[in-house]
Give the backbone structure.
Amino acid sequence: MTEKELIALAGARFGKRRPAFLKVGIGDDCAVISFDAKHDLIVTCDTLAEGTHFLKGTAPELLARKLLAVNLSDAAAMAGIPLWGILSLAAPKNVPEAFLKRFMAALGKEAEKYGVSIIGGDSVRGKDLVLTLTLAGKVEKDRALLRSGAKPGDLVVVTGRLGSTFKSGKHLTFEPRLKEARSLARYFSPSAMMDLSDGLLEDGRRMAEASGVTLKLRGADVPLNAGADLKGALTDGEDFELLLCVPKGNWDEKKAERFRKRFKLELTVIGEAAKKSGESLLLDGKAPQGRGYAHF
Amino acid sequence: MTEKELIALAGARFGKRRPAFLKVGIGDDCAVISFDAKHDLIVTCDTLAEGTHFLKGTAPELLARKLLAVNLSDAAAMAGIPLWGILSLAAPKNVPEAFLKRFMAALGKEAEKYGVSIIGGDSVRGKDLVLTLTLAGKVEKDRALLRSGAKPGDLVVVTGRLGSTFKSGKHLTFEPRLKEARSLARYFSPSAMMDLSDGLLEDGRRMAEASGVTLKLRGADVPLNAGADLKGALTDGEDFELLLCVPKGNWDEKKAERFRKRFKLELTVIGEAAKKSGESLLLDGKAPQGRGYAHF
């Protein structure tokens, strides 16, 4: 059972009588909820567990940064503006108070940097350090970018460079693409967007399946991080770059160049969406082997 | 360092430039956020960890019920109406898939009972079972009942009976006082309300400190659960009843009787709020010894 299937079990009961306020439920980077006259609320929740997402001994400042950043990356994926977060912290008795204080102070400081308020939380004793942040933000009414909107003929585009995120430590220090996502939404009106957390293969398949298309990627065009090969770029995971589909008519190389200069960030066309065939994702015309990084 | 002090570290940075949307931040049962023209949004987050909140071997249906109920109890404490929840689940590899499926199905079913949608979540591998639910709801604009509004002269009132919640298993099967809270708000316009999670002593002190009063309680009037003595009623914790302060002029014994009949639930005046003196809480005129149940 995958994580998605598991979470869906609790949400499935609402498939038939979905509440009126719920615009997008389980399955996208954020849930989307009716908010005020001009905005929808977006909500996401990410958990970091010792041993799975970080090793014992990781500095509390890096943990705070990553906990916030993985959630901000989900908000970015919807082209949203983050507003507030609520924390849950489970910690063993032997975690020094100084560690917890450093973590909390760093979380507050990082959150402030992104205009996010930590508005509450819960802390409990556990055998293991487990950190959960629920993050909410806003997006212009009905303008949240979903992963389900890609259409045959759209260009497949990725920000930044992929792969080697664990080896390089980038998985702890990456910059969530919040401003970049807002610009991409304005420049190109993408048909679909998501963040890359489990690797281009796995996440690309998810976008394809949610959209009912096949993504056809060109391996040679996938931008690689220093030290990464194509396999790593496809499957290492935790890139936290944006994957988007752009209707061909909306793509404009001049705007793309403006984006690259403004954000000092790659923006690369790596393939095309096509009519759904047997495989949800093809790499250079073939079904690639391998899955992404499984966090569960 | 207490839990409250810890969580406050991340929120403290916003003391000076509190965002306009945040009406109540860290320190009450829920945070209160500007929502639409008629409502505020209330948000809370509670975590259950194996060994702290439940023992290994507890049925997944009971865990799902409790996880939802502790959060619903926080929504009740604000006189709010719950709307949606977002789940985080950290589970060791050796937890059988059947257990997780039962947990998720039960969570969906319980949530449905209270009109709550599970709108998303995250599941990760951890060494321990740690369950976090973030719950949001709504309340009429500026009508959330806070713990900070008690005034000298107010009556101190409690719903239900207290104590012996672990021995009796009531801590797993309690009913969150959602409808009761809405009625209490209508009947008595309480000046302050909170739910009792850490015991009457500890939580009573919190209400007194938030309100800047001293609560004077009468031990003989504290309603006891079967098998509980006064000490247990004061300190066992996990009662999840409501503690409220009611301006004397708003108290009406006929309405109280109507409440008791309607909900088949005790509603008992157990003391009075007084001008702040040295102690935040007095029991029969004396400062009681002992703290509540510390979950952290």
